[in-house]
Amino acid sequence: MDVYEVFRRSGHKEPFEHAGAVIAPDPEMALLMGKECFLRRREGEHMWVVKRSDIHSFQDESLLEIAADKSYRFASAYRDVVNKRERARKRAEEAKRQAS
Amino acid sequence: MSKALVSLLTALGDDELVLGHRHSEWTGCAPHMEEDVAFSSIAQDEIGHAAAYYSIAAAATGESPDALAFGRDPGEYRHAIVCERPNGDWAFTLARHWLYDNADDVRLAALESASHPELAALARKIRREERYHLIHADTWIKRIVRGPVEGRTKLIDAVSEVYVQALGLFEPVEEEAAAVAEGLLPVPSGEMLARFVERTGNALDELGLPTESHKSAGDTARFEASSSGDLIADDRGEVELSSTTPGVAMGGRAGRHTDDFKELWDVMTVTYRSHPGASW
Amino acid sequence: MTYEEKLARFNEHIEAGGKVEANDWMPDDFRRGVLKFIEMHANSEIMGALPERECLPSAPTLQRKMSLCAKIQDEVGHAQLLYRVAEDLGKSRVAMYEDLVNGKAKFHNVFHYPVKHWGDVAIIGWLIDGAALVTQAALLDSSYAPYTRVLKRICAEEQLHLRHGEDITLELASGTDEQRAMFQEALDRWWLAIIHFFGPRSNVAKDLLLRWKVKTRTNEDLRNEFLDRYVPKIYELGFTIPAPVPVQEDAHWVLVEEEIDWGPLDAIKRNEGPETARRLATRRHMYESHRWVREALEEPALHAA
After folding, report:
1. pTM of the model
2. What is the ipTM of this complex?
3. Which of A40, B198, C83, C228 is 20 to 30 A away from residue A19, measured at CA?
């Protein structure tokens, strides 16, 4: 018997999420068991089972940490847009005055 | 702030900036789409490290990090020449990525105990990120080495080509004696070079990668002058590099660069230079 | 069930707002149409990386160098997501990529044009990404569900790109006369192409993708939303808009259709835009010179360590 991880998706717009795991002899059986163990209350419209030995992860998950400042990857890096718009507007008025 | 510290930070920052610039040229056209995304992060990391080194230097000199990065003449950059070489193909890029990140790890391990607390803290932080770079480089190198003969051959050629050039990363920085004396650079370049040669030599042996250069450099007789004359060991076991040695790309730490850098510099600084004082 | 019965049932399902998954039964025309549509979107993301990639080496600050690199990285990531979705409709990524590099596929018109300076980065990041976001947000409720799931992430990242692009624009707009001129010059070059981006008026009767709710809004509807959103902002920053100049109509900004010159778009549809050949040649060269990398990734290890 093997451990199968069970993933379910609640609707067409959602991603699959991990629901739990079952112990089963093969994928067919794991599907039957997963359905009743994790989706019997309509928790999902779609389900996958994946043999745990087919799942890989970093041995050292601290590799997933972001060590340095990566603020430029987030919208919060551009927070003061209101002030910047105001500054640009004033500069535009000044440019207009200069031109006339 | 000591002249030695600024000199050291400039060399460190310039290595990261120029290599990060080269790495970033792969963004959008790497040979595999998922790898395009992965390698782009490495490019961004290196540029981020440059920014961090420049920030420490800037705090003392009053120059902004951007002025350090983009406002100097080509002869004022202190990166090793290996960083400025064009990307060539993916084999050259991988070889350089692997050798640079190994060299950087040796260097960062030393800098973790620098007498300057900010620099030491930064080295620790950067080293955490570089750990992933090393795994990335190792994984790729292994995949190519164990793969079909064409890629394997290309990689072997690239490693031999870059290996000698990468030794230039350990050309002493200006004011090195002072940097060592002040504890800013806890391990002299010659000693770091010896560590790098040993470490990469072992790794290349393990990979079964036969390269002329590492064989000569990593010989059991501890760094006696090699057949190609790359390395000259002194009696303390430190290795000195000679700028006259063919194939060794020296001079970068003194601001002597190749035409490759002149081209890179023209493009890299054109916007910054075109409108002095502008904010971007 | 006969094909006609299946088709009738499929149409009913769509009509009722139902979604389609990759493994569901679907009419061949639906499969072909959706595949072509998503393939073009994917091609556009990967080709869209190139103009900005040409600007990246000259980014003027360390922050901009990193953030532009990260933005192009996101575009490649979008291509990766979209090619995966397209693949599941029956065409491999290799086949799609080869069609692209060999000039047999299409990608969005705006990526056929040259870039000249940092002003282009502002235009691409603010107005072109703004236009793209208007069209992509309209697809979030598409009937082809796998597409909507990746679009969720794509739109979220495009929101960030828009902020990034606006930030660059505002910096130029607040800057020196030369910087303002830089933006204006780029706007003058790009405006018509941005209008073309939305395409000509939709033929609602003939457009199968609209009928099957893969697309949810007409081209002109999307273009008008874009104009309403961005024309006031451009004017507010003191810039001028070249032909076709938007006009106000019942508190909306619109274009007089007859004033739009569609000539350049026709050339691009034949893959004969100003930069088409050069950019495709870049891709083809990289693709062909790195065949060995793909082989190394595909084949099992031959040499023991």
Report:
1. 0.93
2. 0.95
3. C83
